[in-house]
Every structure is written in C-alpha cells, then in structure tokens.
Amino acid sequence: MAHYKPKGEKETKDLKTQPRRSSIPEDMNLRDMMRDMMKEVYRMQEKQDILQKMVQEQMSDMRKEWKEDLGEMKKEMNQIQEDLRELRSEKKELRKIQETTQKEIKEILERNRKMERKQEELEAKEMEFQLRLRNIVEEPREDIRLTVVEILSNLLGCTEREMEEQMDRTYRVNTIYAKKNKTPRDVIVHLTRKVIRDEILKINNRKQIYFKEKKVAILKEQPSSVINRRRKYTPLTDELKKRKIKFKWEREEGLMATFRERKYWITTEEGAKEFLRKIKSEKGKDREEEEHENNEREKKKKRLREFSPDKEEMEERANQLKYIKQDYFQNANKPGRWLARRLRKKREATVVTKLKEADKIYTQEEEIRNNFAKFYKKLYQDEQINKERITEYIGQCNIQRISEEQREELNKEITEGEIIKAIKSMKTNKAPGPDGLTAIYYKTFQNEITPYLKKIMSEIRQQKKMPSTWKEANICLIHKENSDPENVKNYRPISLLNVDYKIFSNVIAERFKRFLKDWVKEDQTGFLPDRHQKENVRTVIDLIEYYEINNQKEVMLLALDAEKAFDNVNWNFVKMLIKEMDIGYYCQNIIEAIYEKQETKIIINGQETNKIKIEKGTRQGCPLSPLIFILTLEILLNEIRKEKELKGATIQGKEYKVRAYADDLICIIEEPLKKLTKWMETINKFGEVAGFKINMDKTKAITKNITKKNQERIKEKWNIQVSTKINYLGIIITPKNLQLLENNYTKKWKEIKKELEAWGKLNLSLLGRVASVKMNILPKMIFLFQNLPIIRNQKIINGWKRDLMKYIWQGKKARINYKNMIEEKNKGGLAMVDLKLYFEASALAWFRDWAKMEKDKILTLEGIGLRSGWHSYIWYEKEKKEKNFGNHFVRSAILKIWMKYKSRLCNKIPLWLSPLEAVQRREMGWRRWPRYKELVEKKEGEWKLKSQQEMHKIDKNISWFQYWQVKEKFTKDKSFGFAEGETFWDKIMISGKKIIAKIYKKLLEWDTERENTKKYQEKWSKNIGREIRKEEWEEIWRKKLKYTCAIDLKENWIKMAHRWYWTPKKLGKCYKNVNTKCWKCGEREGTLFHIWWTCKEAEKYWGKIRKRLQEMLEIRIPLKPEIFLLGITDQKFGKNKDKLLFLMTTAARICFAKRWKEKRIPEEEEWIIRIMEIRNMDRLTYLLSKNKGEAIRETDWSQITNYLNKEYGK
C-alpha cells in the first residue's frame, strides 16, 4: 500500500534510529487551521440562518396567501353546498308534492273507476230484471201496464193475472232512437224474477210479436257505460249484422265474433277497424270453404299432436306446469289451498310502506328497516335482571321437584325412532329457515340423514355444543288484524328456523308434553294433550251462572293482556327454574344450549336487516317455545293458587282463581276493591323477574254484582277498563249469559252471510261450493258449538240451513235432495255439512263429561244448585222433579239433546252408570264413584249384584248404608235390563280423539237411514230395465270415483247419477207453452233418459264412442246405458282397463253435457281431445307426486297413446 507523503517533506528515516523532535509548531498550525475552519463554519452557519429566515418569511407569506385563498374557496364551496342543499330540499319537496299529487290523482282515478264499476254492477244487477219494449203505439191516457201485460201474456201463453203478478213497474222513457226515427217512446218493464225475463227473450228469438199490426222489439237492458263503450264498435257490428256473422258482446270490453269457423276476440277500436278491413277484403266464401275442407284433416292431426308430447317432454312440462293446469286438475273445488286462495280476499304479502314514531314519519326503505331493527334489537336485549333477585324469588316459591321417572324420561338418550317420527310429522308446505332446506329434503333422505342428526343431538345433550346454524333464524312479520299498520308494535314476529333444528326441538317438545301434562295444573289448557280451551270458557260461563244466583257476592273477571309475552321471557329465569326443579343434567344442557347466543335477521319488504342478537324470549315458530313459556307461567299460577289473600270463587271446597290458555289469563277476583291490590302485586312481582309484562291499555274486566260507583273507583285506582263485554279466547262474554247467543252466534252468522254473498260471485262448481262451506264455515261454527252449546230453539239453525242452501244452489231451486246432499261420499252423497247435527254432536261431547265424571272441578261448578248426582238426571229423569236443573243456561240445552238420542245411544241400563253417585254425590263428595261395571256380574245368564264384602274391596268407603242404596237401585234397574257388549256410546266414553266427528257420523247415519233406496236409484233402475244392486252403487262410490283426483270428473258422475240436468219435459211442467220435444231429434218427448240414450242422435254418438273404446282397449264392451252413463260394469276388465274405461266414458259424458241444449251431438275429435287432456293431467299428477316423495299408482296409458299415434300420427 502506498503511504501519503506531504509536499516539501523529506523522506522519514527509521524511527528507531531517528532522534525525537519537538511537536509544538505543528500543534500551533493545527489550532490555527481549526480556528479558521470554525470561523468559516460559523460564517456559513450565519449565512444559512439568514437564508433560512428568508425562506421562512417567504413561506409564512405564502401560507398567509394560501390561507386567504383557501378561506375564500371554502366560503365559495360552502355557498355552493348551501345552494345545492337548498336545491336538493326543493327537489325533494317538489318530488314529494309530485308523488303526493300523483298518488292523489291515482286514488281519485281509482275511486272513480271503482265507483263506475260499482255503478255499472248495480245497474247491471237491476237491469237483470228489466226489458225494453220498442215500437208500442202510444195513445192518449193509455194504461201502459195493461198493454204490456196483454202483449207478454200472449207471448208466454199465460193468463193476464199471472203475468201481472210477475211484473213490478212499467213506464215509458224518451230515447235518442225514438226522436231520431220518430217512433213511440220505449217502454221499460221491471219483472220480479230474472227467469221470466230470460224466458221472454228466448221465446221472442223464435217468435215475433205484434201490437196493433206493428212489430214490437223486445230488448235487453244494458248499463249506460256499457252502451257508451259499445258505440265505438258500431261500424263493425253493422257489417257483421249485414253479413249475418254471429257475434257476442263480452262482459267487460269488446266482442267475440265467429268467422270462417274461427273465433275472434276484438277488444279495442283499432282491432275492430282491422277486423272490419279483414272481412271486407275477403274475395269469396266458396274458395275459402273449399280450402278449409281440404286442410281439415291436417288441422285435426296438428291439434291432436299438440296433446301428444313424448315422455321426456312430459317430464320437463311437469316441472314447468306443476302449479298451473295440474294444480287446477288435482285441487280445484276441493278443500285445500286452491280453494282457500279463491275464497279469501287476495292477501298481499306484508308490505310496509310507512312507519310512524312519535311525530316522525318514515317512508324510505332503509329508514323502515332501521326502525324495525332498532325496535327488535331493543325488544330482544337482555334487561339485566339481577340474578340474585331471580334466585331469591324462585327460592320463595317452594317449587315442586320432578319425579325420578319424569327425570329419566327427559334425560334419556335421543333415539333414531324419535328423530324419524319428528321428520314424518313435519309439514311440507312450511317456509324453510336461513339454509333454504325444506321438510321435503329431510323426508326424502331421512334414512341417510338420521344417523348424523342423532350424533349432533347427542353432542348437544352431553356437551352443550349446538351448531351455529341452529341458533340462527329469519324473522318474517305478520301484521295483526284490526291494528294500525304504521305502528312497529303491531306486527307479530314469526321465526323461520332451519328444519334440522325444528326436528331436534320437536323431539324435546314431545318429551316435555308428557312431563308437563302431569306437572302443570288443569287451570292451564294451552298446548298440552287432552286439554282444550273450551274448558276455560266453560268455567267462566258457569261462574257467571253461579254469581247470578249468589248475587250478594261481588266479583270481577279480569282478562289480562301480556305485552309480547313470548318475546319477553327471561332466559336466566328459565335456566334457574329448571335447575331448581332438578330437571336433570342432560336436559339442562339442552335447554341452556338452545337459549344461548341466538341471532336473527328481520325480513322487511323482501330485504334483510343486519344480524340482531337475541338475549331473551322464546322464538315463535319453535315447537318447544310454547312449552317453555307455560312452564315459566306455571310459577305465577302456583303463586296465585297458594296465596290465601288472593280470593277467588270457592264452591264446595274447590277454588276457582285463574284460568289460562298460554298467555291468555282470566282472573276470578272476589271483593276486588279490597283484594285487587294484592293481585296486581303478585303478578307484577313475578313479571319483574320473569319478564312478564301486563299491557294495561288492553287489559279489560267485567264485573258482577258491583255498583257503577265502585266500578268507577276500580277504574280510577288501578287504571283497569271495566267493560260491558270482553273477548276471551274468541268468545264474547258479558255479565249476563242471556246475551251470549246474540253476541256470538248472531254476530258470527252476519259475517258468514257476507262471505257467502262474496263467494257466490266466484263461479265455483257445485262441489266447490259444498267444499267451501265445509272448509271455511264449519270450523267457525264448531268452535262456537264446542264453547257455547246453548241453542234451544231450532229456528235459528233452520235459518242457517236456508242461507247455505241459497248459496249452494245460487238462489235457484235445489236439484238434489237435502238428505242425499248431507250423506257421506262413500254412500253416494255430497258430504254437505248439517249444522244441526254438528251442534247436537258438540252438545253430546259436552254431555260426555257428565257421564264420565272425571273433571271433578268443572262438574262441581256446573252442578251448582243441584240436590242429586249427575247420573240421576242423565238416567233417572230427576230433572222432571227438580226444576232447578233447567234454570242453568247450558244444562237444559244439553240435556234436551241427550234425551232426544238416549234410547238410541243406550237402549238398556249402561254399565258406566253409577247408582251411588246418582243419590249421594252432594252428601259424600267422592272423587271416584263405583259404576255398575264394577258392582254387577252376569252368572248363569242372569245379572247379579256383588256382595258387600266384594264391594268393599273395590272401594273401602262403601258402607252397609251405601250398599243398601245400590241394592235398591239395582232391583229397579234389573227389570229394565243391562247393556251387554260394547255399545257405540261406550266407545265414545273411552275415545280420546275426534269425538265430535265420530258422534256426527253416527247421528248422520241415523238421520239418513230412511234413505236406503234413493229416488234417483229407483228411476235409473226403471230406465235401464233392471234393478241396480246396492253393491254396484257402492263400487262406484267407494272405488271408481277414487280413480281420479279431479273434482270436475267426479262432479260429472254425481250430476249424472242424481239426474241433475233440466230436460224439456221438466221445463214444460214449470212453464206453459214450452216445447217438451227432445232438443236433439225433435220427435219424442224430451225425458232425461231419452236425451242421454234412446234418442237416435244419442244412439249414433254412443255407438261411435263404443266402437273407438273397443278398438283402443281391445275388449268387447256391451252397448248398455249403465256402462256409458253410470260406469257400472258386470265384466272384469282388469283394474287398469276398468279405470281407463271409467275415465274415457266420463270424458264422453262431459262432451255431451256441454252441448246439452244444442241440436247437434259432439264431434269425435272433441272427445279425443278431452281424453288426451285427462291423460296428460293424470301423468303430470303422478310425476309431481313422485317428485314430492308421495308417489301414487301410475295409470298405464300406453294402449291409448299407441292407438292415437297410429290413427292420427305423432
């Protein structure tokens, strides 16, 4: 490496040999250099500071300038923004004004349209009974009514007196036509019956009438709005009349014309002009007819091919048309969703367009969603109730712990059998949860899914690990009827849960039902097996009767309204409650897993809100939810029962304080002025820890034996509405039971009559109308019958029957005997409901409790004031001596019905009768009474009473005195005889389900038993020339009518069998001068059997049908009327061919019936098309049922298809 050598310096020598020299001058030089350098540095630094100051000054000046510029820019921007805001607000205001104006205009236009339509409907309805007579010579001082009577009586062939009875008003009117043509003024005639008007028009079409040698025209009346609409079609109609082309006015708008055997619908003025040009531009009729005839065969083939798609196309169409034609074919006019949609007013999905909160109104979608989200977020937020308070309250309640058996039942391992049962119970038409999987999916793959579900459920049971998807839900809102839709509180939240979670909760719910049935007392009747809400209503009505007698006692019936009862249940209360009950480790795990960290989204107008945490409440839509609620509420009910200061009704040692149906509570409060404070404290104390809140605005009460002054004091002190009536569980209850009939039955029937009037305009078939009564009206009436069996006079029921028959027959004369209508379908009836028999069945179901004597608490209350036991009135007719029995509002009505059927239900002494209860119920007050079944035995063909020792083993309470009383009764009853074997009523006594339906069926059987051989059956036997056996009719009713699910096919057979159709002979009996000759041949008298079978035109028709059927089915079919008209065959063709024959002959009858009053018979092509429609719909039904996992037996149409392909081409 080279070393640095300063200039002028000599080369250094070796340091070891070089002597040391002094370094002071060098140091001095260095210091000077350093000093100079430092000076230079300072100088440069000063210069830099000066420059820096200059830069800073310049920068500060620039900043000032920038700030000033920016300030000015900000001011300008603010001004611009302010201007924009003003413009936006003005725009919004203008838009709102515009929208409001448009809405008002639309509303006004809509109202105008509605009024016009209403006016038109009213005019049309009125004009259905009117005729216009034109060109009747006008005379001075004429009596136009007598003139018209003379003209019309001559036309109809009746006496002038008969014609005058059918007329209402007659007067002349000025018309433009009369002024223009200088003719007499027209005459308007109002008739009393529409059928008379129709008959006059019909006869006038065939026969011209003259008055004083001048032709008189008889015209239909039309509303002025209709006439104005039709004027724009005048050029077209004039041309059509000139060319004698048939046309028909459409009801709403336009007309339908038949030209060259084709139908044209003209609904606009432009369309009318175009069609007019078309018919005018035709060159010649003959040439077109010739071309038409030449191509007729090809057209037929083409039309038939449209009805013959191949199997792949059919399967594709099954998915596309499943809710269109097939839905009508399978479901039309029968009880179900199709009919429900027709009957109900079109109910749109809950769409929220506006919300109000205090003085603010929200109309924007986002604002509405935010408001709902805010409300439910607050609703489901934990109220932070102190756990120590909950623990303290539950500890004070002394809650009964469950038994070992119950604990074992609740905690046992979940089995695959339970899961499969839950899956099968799921309804397929329910909306799915957030995952989108429906019940059909789980039903289809239940065998594959069940093991996985069991594994998940076991993890929840053992480790409290629940899938996160099971904690999610979508809440859809249903608006509460008769409430303000703009209030967020007036919507019921229904949780759409995932189906797999619902399967799990269903399994747990079934276990809880069995447990709660014993744990929850009889005062709570909601959601538990063998408990009914009617028991609550029954208790209230009986209590009103009790306080009517004991009018010295003051009482208040307080109907509590719980605010969002299910949504406010406190989770901590539920968890601590089940822990206190010692419900078991595994069951506790399940409940704690369910009620932990739930989430939901609210669906508003089809859009979801953000997720909302749920921290309280039981989800409405979960099968377990109502059971958890009644478990929680039972704590309050127990506190009410235990608290001695809470005074209710006490009758023969039994207390009646409260009745509940889930959250619908009614409290029976004696001495309310003294005791009501304690009642409210008890309820509020429970509510503070359990989340049970009372809505005082909706809580109502009725009082009995309390002065108006005291009622006012109650209202002021406790803010409780004291009303003259309350709605409890759908029944209007008043302080006097005399008003029950008016407030419930009369009011309900007024609503039903309005519905019947609306349904009458829906164009339902006969069976559709029958089904509508059964589906919509019967449940409403049975609800009243079950709760209020108080009808004593049959007049009201007869009035209902008249209204129903008027609806069924559309105000016309019935064509089927009433007894035949109410009979069951498998006996040839229409299964029309008989409200009288249903009422009697409901009353007998109520009476059943008197006979069974199990509901001791209710029977004690209902039997108040009676001196003997229930069985003394049931069997020994004690009520004849003790008139007090009939003073009760319910007892007398029920006993009357029992006495009506007593001899039929029990023609001998029944073994369920208790002779001891009949004489000693009031004295002994036992809960269990020995019956004849236990007290007697049959030895050597003779009934004998057991000894006193044997009776003592049965019941230790039976002493020698009771034995003597039983013996005395037995001696008398023995002569009457005891019932042997199990009777119908014995079965009802032990039955648990569908009691009213079973009793109704038996009453119906007795009511129609005289109709074993119906008149229509006798007439058919006479026509055919042989007796049609009962077995042949039953084969149709029970087997062949089930070949199809289509109501219109079944209805055709029913109409045929019941000889529905009006014939010339029948019309001749109703009206004079009616031609009674056959409409087809015009030669012989037109009876039903002649037109359908013996007429030469009908013979041709059925001959063709028979020939084709034999070719299609490759069987020999006799030409017998019972086969083609009734479907009765004595040959065995095999099930599939028999089914095809029945369906195809039905198609032939439908075609014939469509041309009933026409001279010509149906074309063969019409029949073939109808068969193909039935075939296609039958196959679609099979494919859809198969897709749903509900496969039905497939009909083999291959023979028919092959024949038609061969005959008409593919």
Distance between the termini: 110 Å
Q: Average pLDDT value?
A: 84
Could you tell me the strand content as a percent range?
5-15%
Report the major sheet: 5 strands, antiparallel
Number of structurally distinct domains: 5
* Separate helix tally: 49
Number of strands: 26
Indicate the radius of gyration in whole angstroms: 45 Å
Give the proportion of residues in helices.
Answer: 55-70%
Largest sheet, order of strands side by side?
2-3-1-5-4
Low-confidence segments: 1-23, 317-323
Shape: globular
What structural class do helix, strand and pairing data support? alpha+beta
Protein name: Reverse transcriptase domain-containing protein
Keywords: Coiled coil
Structure description:
The protein has 1210 residues and is of the alpha+beta class. The chain has 5 domains: 43-128; 130-276, Alpha-Beta Plaits (2-Layer Sandwich); 369-733, no CATH class; 743-806 and 816-1007, no CATH class; 1021-1208, no CATH class. β7 (255-259) and β8 form a beta hairpin. α26 (740-759) runs parallel beside α28 and α27 packs parallel to α30 (835-852). It is globular and about 155 Å long. Residues 1-23 and 317-323 have low confidence and may be disordered.
